[in-house]
Amino acid sequence: MGEIVLSGIRPTGPLHLGNYMGAVTNFVKMQENNRCYFFVADYHSLTTHPLAEHLQENIKQVLSEYLAAGIDPNKSTLYIQSDLPETAELYLYLNMNAYIGELERTTTYKDKKSKQPTNINAGLLTYPTLMAADILIHRATKVPVGKDQEQHLEMTRTFGNRFNRMYNYDLFPEATAYNFGEELVKIPGLDGSGKMGKSEGVDNCLYLSDSPEALKKKIMKALTDSGPTQMNQEKPVYIENLFTILNAVGTNDTVQYFEDQWNNCTIRYGDFKKQIFEDVNAFLTPIRERIHDIRSNDEYLGKVAKQGAEQARESASATMKEVRRLIGIKSLF
Ligand code: TYM
User: Does the pTM exceed 0.90?
Assistant: First the structure.
């Protein structure tokens, strides 16, 4: 049945519009015709040492948000990474053939190294091998992710091919990053600089669970300037970013209306931001309401996690049996 699709998100906070556009919508569209796995990447979130109670809370929150966003546990396998400890075993094997040089060259690692110089741990360095283990354990072929994950996917192909070559066996297929549009998505944050990201601060992110008041406050505060002074002037990054956000949630007509206003220098940022707020809010309101309902039902979340763990294990144990056989790991009793 179609492709084997897998994607995951770290439970380091509630989901934001970037996560939704980069990973979740594409996944939801694929779950009808493909074998789909979606998981909460709790092992990955340990690189920043969260408190146990925060981690538990975030896992439940993210699981609720996946469900609210349309991931159907009866069509897809929805599980929590640590409920599949085979992932950690495959991570260990892959680390034996991952070279320090290639890990140190990873952009996300270099980025974290400069942002958190007092906590450069081995988990950060080997983040790409853990991610490869997630993907290879189900022998996935398509991975819906945002633009920032492209390099990790390339490393996954390197590790999988290297394993196949070393053991002279065609076990792992090549997985590619996937988006329904032509390009992988990058939703910008509200501060006018980089991407919308959980580590960039709460005011930079539009969370799926934000109240209308919170959304409005953040959008109205987004960085702008005194407006264009020349017809068809190029937009500064922070204005381009606001157009990207409007484009993600609004209609083509609305975007065109403000593009024209920009081009003839009549744009009023107050109206522009109000429109962005209205479109973001209309887009997120049904999701927010579902998150609220699902999050209050711990029993349901437990059932979903259990069912997901059982299904994920079926696929993972078939792969691990082959991996152990090829490597020569076999118990003597
Ligand atoms: P995380 O939690 O950082 O991001 C989860 C997903 O959201 C996407 N994303 C974005 N997409 C567009 N615009 C943005 N501003 C934006 N911010 C985040 C990310 O690209 C990602 O798809 N390493 C993964 C988690 C992971 C994983 C995996 C994913 C672990 N194992 C295996 C796929 C397959 C991550 O970055 O999580």
Answer: yes
